[in-house]
Amino acid sequence: MTEDELFAEFDRPDVPGVSALIAQEGQIRLARSYGAANLTTNSPVSPDTNFRLASLTKQFTAMSIMILAERGKLALGDALPAFVPGFPRYGDSITLGHLLTHTSGLLDYEDLIPAGTATPLTDRDVLEILRRQDRTFFPAGTSFRYSNGGYAFLALVVEAASGKRFSAFLRENIFEPLAMRNTVAFEAGVSEVPCRAIGYTRRGEVFEETDQSVTSAVLGDGGIYSSITDLFQWDQALYGEKLVSRPMLEQAFADHGSGYGFGWFVDREKVWHHGETCGFTTRIERFPRVRRTVILLANRRDADLATIARKLAPQL
User: Fold this and answer.
1) Helices and strands per DSSP (H, E), number in the chain
2) Is 63 within 8 Å of 263 (Cβ atoms)?
3) Residue 17 in contact with residue 35, Cβ under 8 Å?
4) Within 10 A of 287 (CB to CB), how many other CB atoms are there?
5) CA 8, CA 41: separation in Å to the nearest integer?
6) What's the confidence (pLDDT) of residue 314?
7) Where are the domains of the chain?
8) What are the per-10-residue average pLDDT scores of the chain (316 residues)?
9) What does residue 159 show for φ and ψ, rounded to 5 degrees?
10) Chain centre to alpha carbon of residue 275
11) Burial class, 163, CB count within 10 angstroms (exposed 0-12 / middle 13-18 / buried 19+)
12) Do 157 and 65 meet the contact criterion of CB atoms below 8 Å apart?
């Protein structure tokens, strides 16, 4: 099956699209874009189109924590209340390491959003929701449960430890050093996303715009926009020590007991992550031993990027 055949469902100017990149040993072997970034303006997807990364954001949040740890601003064993004064006592046993590896036991904030909420939540709103709780799913460190709230907390920790807005810390310490020129943690009314894709969901035979939801303004768990062009820069930096040391990177890519590192799922041959939100589906798969990476970004919900990635990777 050719690449174009794999992407046939996206290869029309009147449907939401996808950007795909395959890198091998530091070289881009494939960079293709299909479909529309915006169905209203009919603008096509290009390699520079910026998509909402959804949970691919977590690897950047985790990197921010690692950078601050190497600078001595925090330690991975620090407890949550050190950065969140007045947090309930159940947080006393939750460390930054637990938040990074989804072993904190925090309740799912999405299930606790008050009915009728219309104003988009921020990371600090997530804190306030969980501050009102008096329990966790399990004692910290005893099990794994994927937690968006944990990564919202980590964004607040970055702000407390660095004295900078989370978006500014990302820009100054990751995006600018890696020449990720158009990547941004988007804040409505504060920042703009150049070459922005709009998100959609299929409803029968049509695609409905579903670009934002009540959780879209939470930055730490999913608020970054980026392109395959910029994510290639990110991927290449992870082979070196431009951001943090090799020992710290090895912790990020290690299995901490449940198949998860720091912002990455960890398998025997690859590290990877997927993201899905109201109008976007994203995926990155890295095979460090053979220096191969597959990046897929789509501006439609429920795109089957896992199947596409599985069929693309063996072709190199």
Assistant:
1) 9, 13
2) yes
3) yes
4) 17
5) 22
6) 62
7) 3-46+54-278+294-315
8) 87 97 96 97 97 98 98 98 92 97 98 94 97 96 98 98 98 98 95 97 95 96 98 98 97 96 96 97 97 97 95 67
9) -65, -45
10) 7
11) exposed
12) yes
Q: Extract the tokens encoding 94.
A: 């939750």
**Which CA distances in Å does 102 have to 99, 152, 159?**
5, 12, 20
Read out DSSP for 115-177? TT--SPP-HHHHHHHHHT----SS-TTS-----HHHHHHHHHHHHHHHSS-HHHHHIIIIITT
Long-range contacts of 29-34 (CB under 8 A, 24+ apart): 29/316, 30/3, 30/312, 31/228, 31/229, 32/3, 32/4, 32/7, 33/228, 34/7, 34/10
**Beta carbons within 8 Å of 240's beta carbon, 6+ residues apart:** none
Helix or strand holding residue 43 (H, E): strand 43-44
Backbone angles phi, psi at 34, to 5 degrees: -140, 150
Query: What does CATH list as the number for 3-46+54-278+294-315?
Result: 3.40.710.10
* Joined tokens for residue 111: 């299930």
d(CA 302, CA 50): 18
Q: What residues act catalytically?
A: 55
Taking the C-alpha atoms of residue 93 and residue 228, their distance in angstroms, rounded to an integer, is 39
Question: 184 to each of 190, 215, 226, how far by Cα in Å?
Answer: 11, 17, 7
